């Protein structure tokens, strides 16, 4: 039986890989490694339990650090595991330092890399995530692209069609798989919220938490809070940045600690709209029919903007206020909700089948040279 190792280390990776991991366990000798890029496994255990995932076979506990140090920690701690376990393929997801280090460690040892969510591009090289995803794509053997735009990006960069497969998005599978559990969440009662009567806010991108941008973003959000109830689960990075910069959230914005996946889905599903700089939340909002105001200048999910479902608001006070004035009006929200986009399920099954084909046809004869 072929051995496949899946590498993850952040909560978005856990969520997006959650529908794929059970399939890999059924079909292969499967190993799971948690890098601990943002938290320890203990901090993520709630996500594993909610998503019915097995405990990791290994936890690297690299923790937060500068990009260089974090990458070095993952590489140095993962390489001995790869040499010991000899997987036939390594699966990585998205654009994190975990994905980059996992892909690089495997490729250096001639182990085929499978990149889930390949080909996404913001075309903003100032974003660490953009650099990560481009590099991972160019060292991968199998590139699982979510849509035709991503396929076109990969082709334009010279990657051969034989390595590219358009499979859809595992985030759609994860959201669809977990909708059945949303009824178990009491988050709306806990926070005393009425469905459709609040906005959900998430803000965590590194570029949005710098002193040049964060104060202005918060000022625009404070202005929005004059007219809307806003619920803000505060990401640790954002909380640390606000403390370091001496910033406080307006009392009109209701903050809470980060939530589990099911609670977050329930909160999202009942929101009037979501304000976010998260890529995963953009997809989940589209699945649940919730319009999103994207607090960035570009998005990897441009198709959702082009379809009229979501709105790019930028990350400057004037652009956020201007976009919100239109997108959050009754007319703007009704228009967005009237433009449903069909998002295909089944990406996880397609990826699993492609990995089986890859290993059956191209099993490497000389790995570790």
Characterization of the model:
- The protein is of the alpha/beta class and 369 residues long.
- It folds into two domains: 183 residues, Rossmann fold, CATH 3.40.50; 152 residues, Glycogen Phosphorylase B (Rossmann fold), CATH 3.40.50.
- It is built from 17 helices and 13 strands.
- It has a seven-stranded parallel beta sheet with strand order 3-2-1-4-5-6-7, with helices on both faces. Strands 10-9-8-11-12-13 form a six-stranded parallel beta sheet, sandwiched between helices.
- Helix 10 packs parallel to helix 15.
- The longest helix has 19 residues.
- The two termini are 23 Å apart.
- The C terminus is likely disordered.
CATH topology of the largest domain: Rossmann fold
Q: Determine the fraction of residues in helical runs and give it as a percent range.
A: 40-55%
String of helices and strands: EHHEHEHEHEHEHEHHEHEHEHEHEHEHHH
Count of domain modules: 2
Assigned CATH architecture of the largest domain: 3-Layer(aba) Sandwich
> How large is the radius of gyration?
20 Å
Contiguous runs where pLDDT drops below 50 for at least 5 residues: 364-369
Q: Biggest β-sheet: count, sense, barrel?
A: 7 strands, parallel
Q: What is the CATH top level name of the largest domain?
A: Alpha Beta
Distance between the termini: 23 Å
